[in-house]
Specification:
The chain is an alpha+beta fold. It is built from 11 helices and 13 strands. 40% of the residues lie in helices and 25% in strands. The relative contact order is 0.15. It comes from Massilia aerilata.
């Protein structure tokens, strides 16, 4: 490490260099990062070189037409994202201590969760902060936060976009269920591969023509093909079809709990489960987060696991 250089680079300057590096990677080029940071490309290039000299490693391999992270660059990027998120949270906490949120919070929530389970924590937020209003929109895509003016989104599943901040709220267990009529005349399956002989309902957002199940004790995972009689991207439509005996399906445990308790559905192969689905709250990176968003995040961190009885993050 270049100790002489580090001696003259202040902590604030180092944070600026780290943020510049992250923006370069997220944006895909120096020029795009310069636009995001509202500065010039030579300035961004100079900051990158200063950071590389300070760390004593090469972070990016650049040519006329391409830019690629080095191994050191990949490690640096991962840690830099964590560092920025921590610093931003620190700034927000110090600046906004005691600040009461006022205004409109715009949230995108999943169709399945946003109609019922998430309304209770939303109501808690509104009761706690009477000067707030919430625009509660239900759809299952990741929004363009800046273009659409969205504060945050709640997403089910993995978050492939590295340019957003993602807070993991928990994981939803998923199980195999069907109506008793589906098993009429059939012996209950004793091995996951026997499930392939059943009619199926596919939840196309998560599985279509193949299913993977994992044994809860041994960790063994088996994959097998299915031939769905129905495809849907809606959890409630799947549940309704399962109740009518259309076929077996994999569903979130919270969504079928009442039907299982009432005997309208039965769980198949209870020792085998599909991979749990993570729930994230995501939002765009920023220097400072308004109180309306910070308070909403605080409530959701506690309320979402309680609402679904799900595994903590």
């Amino acid at each position: 490490m270049n100790l002489d250089l580090n001696a003259v680079v202040s902590t604030a300057d180092r944070m600026m260099l780290v943020e510049t590096f992250v923006r370069i990677v997220d944006a895909g080029s120096l020029s795009a990062a310069a636009r995001l940071l509202e500065t010039t490309q030579p300035t961004v290039s100079r900051r990158l070189k200063t950071l590389e000299k300070s760390l004593g490693v090469r972070l990016l391999q650049r040519s006329t037409h391409a830019m690629k992270l080095t191994d050191d660059g990949m490690r640096c990027y991962t840690r830099a994202k964590e560092l920025l998120a921590g610093w931003q949270a620190f700034e927000s906490e110090i600046r906004g201590a005691g600040e009461e949120p006022v205004g409109l919070l715009r949230v995108i929530a999943p169709h399945a969760f946003g109609q019922q389970q998430l309304v209770a924590p939303l109501a808690e937020y509104l009761a706690r902060y009477p000067k707030m209003a919430v625009d509660w929109t239900l759809h299952d895509r990741t929004p363009d936060f800046i273009a659409e003016g969205i504060d945050c989104a709640i997403r089910v599943g993995d978050i492939p976009d590295p340019s957003v901040v993602a807070i993991r709220l928990g994981e939803v267990p998923r199980i195999v269920v069907c109506a008793p009529a589906v098993l009429a005349g059939r012996a209950p399956p004793t091995h996951p591969e026997q499930l392939a002989a059943l009619p199926w309902i596919a939840v196309s957002s998560f599985y279509r023509n193949e299913v993977a199940l994992t044994h809860r004790q041994s960790g063994e995972t088996l994959r097998f093909a299915i031939q769905p009689r129905m495809y849907t991207d809606n959890l409630y439509a799947m549940r309704s079809a399962a109740l009518l005996g259309v076929g077996a399906a994999i569903g979130s445990s919270w969504a079928v709990r009442e039907e299982l308790d009432a005997g309208r559905l039965v769980q198949l192969m209870p020792d085998w489960e599909a991979a749990p689905l993570p729930i994230h709250l995501i939002y765009p990176p920023a220097r400072f987060y308004p109180a309306r968003l910070r308070r909403f995040i605080d409530i959701m961190k506690v309320a979402v696991p309680q609402a679904f009885g799900i595994l903590p993050p």
